[in-house]
Write a structure and sequence with these properties.
By secondary structure, this protein is of the alpha/beta class. It has 10 helices and 7 strands.
Length: 281
């Protein structure tokens, strides 16, 4: 049976790949992004596209009103929109942190809350609906120069855990997608948003800070390849609570689990040049 799938953040990367894969399988896809023109190639393929700024309640309401009038339900909502704020924690301003959490933590909840009547309409029709939040394996461990992003994904994982229990009585199944490295423009966007003030303590290892923005793209899995098993899982009658995929999506969480914390910290610190900053005793 064809399902109505709404995905946020479809301009590139994971969101675009998921939209294409669901469409290829014959499902009704509503691909959204903040700027509608970025979705023109999808519209040319017959995918329904809508403008949706996840940080704007008016935009959310307008997009969902359109979905309600055209389809009357959402069988599968995928909260994918997000970005990575790169920079040492002490180099980030209040506004930097607010923007990170607004988009990656608060927005998925706002979209879910607004979509709830349409998800419940799907339950009434088919006995179930699925909410999927796109987290990250770095929500399971934290790397230098990505503390804001890692913490935002950890928070989203926690909110997803709560939603999984809270929405279960209403027939809404909640899945947390935890990608590893997936090939996209995500690293370029992260580098564009990078914070490194002139007086930063980390100026001597500036290259390492910039390297963190692109770290997830080293050996990354093509987004199209990543999307196939994710879509398989989301279409199951009883989807798993957590789905992982992409480069290092298994290896790095296992290292975090089994290595002593000091050793894990040392490995990451060395990988991002922090060992070069140690001042002589």
């Amino acid at each position: 049976m064809s399902r109505c799938v709404l995905i946020t953040g479809c301009s590139s990367g994971i969101g675009a790949a998921l939209a294409h894969e669901f469409h290829r399988r014959g499902h009704l896809v509503v691909a959204t992004a903040r700027r509608l023109e970025t979705l023109a190639p999808m519209a040319a393929l017959g995918i329904r596209t809508l403008a949706l700024d996840v940080n704007d309640d008016t935009s959310i309401a307008a997009a969902l009103a359109t979905v309600r009038s055209e389809h009357g339900r959402i069988d599968l909502l995928i909260n994918n929109a997000g970005f990575s704020q790169v920079g040492a924690v002490v180099d980030l301003s209040r506004d930097d942190l607010r923007a990170q959490y607004e988009t990656n933590v608060i927005a998925p909840v706002a979209v879910t809350r607004a979509a709830l009547p349409l998800l419940r309409a799907a339950v009434a029709r088919d006995g179930r609906a699925v909410l999927a939040n796109v987290g990250s394996i770095v929500g399971l461990f934290t790397t230098p120069f990505a503390g804001a992003y890692c913490s935002s994904k950890a928070a989203l994982h926690s909110l997803s855990d709560a939603l999984r229990m809270e929405l279960a009585p209403f027939g809404i199944q909640v899945v947390t997608i935890q990608p590893g490295g997936v090939r996209s423009a995500f690293g370029n966007s992260a580098e564009a948003a990078l914070r490194l003030p002139e007086d930063s303590l980390y100026r001597p290892i500036e290259r390492s800070v910039h390297a963190r923005a692109q770290a997830g793209q080293v050996g990354a899995t093509p987004a199209e390849e990543f999307a196939i098993p994710i879509v398989d899982a989301l279409l199951e009658r009883e989807p798993p609570a957590i789905v992982r995929g992409g480069h290092n999506s298994t290896r790095l969480p296992l290292l975090k689990r089994w290595l002593p914390l000091r050793l894990f910290d040392e490995k990451l610190s060395k990988a991002f040049g922090l060992d070069k900053l140690k001042e002589p005793a």
